[in-house]
Amino acid sequence: MPRTLADIKKSLDLHLGKRLLLKANGGRKKTVERAGILRETYPSVFVVELDQDENAFERVSYSYTDVLTEAVEVTVCSGQEEALAVK
């Protein structure tokens, strides 16, 4: 089923302040995995505050187009388990 950018934004809006796992295409056949808290959503991008003990920088932002084209896979966590994949 095709999704739109507006659907992806609405889905992420429901999870503000929750923990996310991100799998992003790092280029040259590399996959980057990061974890953090979804802090803000804007009309074109969303911002995730990363865990400081695992990452060298504080925040990362991705566009909803990245999620739509599957360059970034977003998974919302509940407790220790992965609960919902935003695709």
TrEMBL record:
One Pfam family recorded for the sequence: VEG
GO biological process: regulation of DNA-templated transcription
Protein name, per record: ABC transporter permease
Organism: Planococcus lenghuensis
